[in-house]
Structures are given as C-alpha cells and as structure tokens.
Amino acid sequence: MDAVRSLSGLNLNFLGLVTTKVTAGAAATFAIAAVATGGALTVSRNGIKAILAASAGIAFVKYNINGVADASVSTLVSTSTTGQACIMVSALKNVGGSDTVAGTETLVQILGPVVDLDISGTIKQGIMKFPVITDDTLIPVSYTVVSFAANNAGTFTFGTSNWNAAGITVSNTNDMAALPRRPMATTIANLGNH
Fold this sequence. Notes:
Layout: E1 9-11, E2 20-24, E3 30-34, E4 40-45, E5 48-53, E6 55-58, E7 75-78, E8 83-95, E9 104-111, E10 115-117, E11 128-129, E12 139-148, E13 154-157, E14 168-170, E15 174-175, E16 184-185
Antiparallel strand pairs: 1-4, 2-3, 3-6, 4-5, 7-13, 8-9, 8-10, 8-12, 11-16, 12-14, 12-15
C-alpha cells in the first residue's frame, strides 16, 4: 500500500477565489500583484489560513531550507565560456511567530543548487533542482528560473543586482500549490516560461 503524503502547507490561490502573481520587480525587489480579484496571497499553514496583501517593492529575503534566515551572499557568475542558473522559490513565512500567531507574514526566497551553463545556455552537467525545503512553516507559492548567460563577465548578486541586469533572464513566475515531489529537470526550458 502506498504511503500517504502529508502536506503541512498549501497555496490556496488555486481555488480561483483569489489569483495573484509573485513577480520580479523593476529593481532588486518583488511584487505581489493581483491578476484577478482579491489582491492577496493566501495559504494554509498547518491548517491555519495566512494572508499577505498585494504590494510592490518587496525586498529579497533569503531563507535556507530549514526555515532559518540566511544572511550569506548568493551570486550567479558569468565568464566568457560559462554562465550559471538556479531555481528560486518564493514562500510565505511567519517571521517572529508561530504559524499565524503573533508574527508577520513575509515573502521569502529559497534558492536551489546552482548549475553551470555552456555558451548556448544548456546545462553543462547534471540537472536543475528545486531546493528541498524541510521546514513546514515555509509555504512555497511560486518559483522562477534565474539564469546568467555566459560571456557577460560579471557577477549577479541576489537582493542587490537588478533583475533586468545585462545577461540576466528571469523566467515567467510559475504559481505552485506545493513543492513538487520530484522537483528536477534536465533543461531550463522544462521549468520556465509555462
């Protein structure tokens, strides 16, 4: 008999009552924009409803897969022959509280492993993976693929560099109800621009 998969969190925007998109902003920020009615990001965390209102200019706030704030600097590097890419998951986190009690709902980002790209933008070796989020208070709501093409001779720094920097491609943000069970792909095209 198959084991039952337990879900501790779920993005409720798929119910059709509220439809929103998390998008990369004009600078180094994000926006939660209402696509239809409602204008809020709604999730269930351990059975409790949590909401983050639509807004713009949301700062990049990196967390690790264990639900702990991560102040380390994350970058993608481009050389004359190699670029880099990774999957960035946006999640709702109750900062300073427990579930929705006495905390502040915050949009945070969790980065997957970085892969190297050849001059044509194809992954050189291995596969692109989602971060394996182990903290059930981080509720994934969307993902995007961020890639830095080869031959741009520079460094892209998450949270500091602009999303429209030269050589940077940010795929269409894809809403997600929960983190996929087998979150991986062999090509960037299999993940982005759905």
